[in-house]
Structures are given as structure tokens and as C-alpha cells.
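Q: I have 155 residues here and want to know how they pack in 3D. Can you give me a structure?
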Amino acid sequence: MQGPQNLFSFLCPSNDLRFLEPVLLEPRQVSGFTSTGRPSRLIGLAVGFGSNYLNALHVDGRLILNNGSHRAYALRELGLKEVPCIVQTVTRRDELELVASGDFQQFPDRYLKAPRPPLLKDYFDPKLRKIVVVQRKNRLVRVQIGVEQSDVPAE
């Protein structure tokens, strides 16, 4: 929905809704666009969804599920044994700062040095897990546009 002229709001039951990226476009790239002037460029602000694939990191000979553990659990409980997964290879420990997340980013040795790291099958062990009912939420993404116009000296 559009609020004031410069504010757009997007509401979705999926918490994967997000601002993706800005993009600079030629007017001919946008079919059906009409303008009150003669635009030389258009700015597109993409809002949508990520890939929703599982994401794993290949580090020191181990494959670590970096993002998607809840999806992996739900899909496995539904009986699926194979799903798409993006695997990123990490060649140096300092790269973990850029690509790892959550507990793995904070405590990588738990996953890389421990003789028995946490495994997906642990989710199915009633002694190691607790199912918590949470209230459903909608994801709200607001994109606000700011414009500044001024005259600057020409060379």
C-alpha cells in the first residue's frame, strides 16, 4: 500500500519478505511506465523474498547448516530427505565473520573442533528439544524515499 507520496508499506504473512536491493534502470526497461516528464533514469526498489534454500558452509572438512535449521526440521518431519541447499566454501577462518551467522559465528569451535558437533537429528530427540508455540506474525517492510535537490557550480 502507498501512504504519503514517499512511503510504501508491504505486509506479508511470510517473515522472508524483505527489501532486496535498489537498481538503476533505463526507462525502456519498464513497460507501461508513463511520466509527467521525460525521465532519463528510473530507480527501482525491489521488495520480495530470498531464495528460501537451506544455506550451508563447508569449513575445515565439515558441512555446517548456517541458515535454515527450522525449515530443515519441518521438511524432514514431512518426510522429505532431499531439498535444495546453497553450499559456500570457506577457505580461511577470518571469512566466517562475513558469511556465518548466529551461534556458529559466535562459537565456531563448537562446530569445527568438537568431536561430536550439534546435528540436525538432534531436533528429533525429545530430550534435547522443546517445541514452543509462538504467535503468528506478519512481516511489515516499509520503504521511504527521500529526495534532495540543489544547484551546484558547473566546472
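Q: Anything worth noting?
A: The two ends are 43 Å apart (CA to CA). The beta strands are 7-12, 17-25, 42-49, 54-59, 62-67, 85-90, 139-144.
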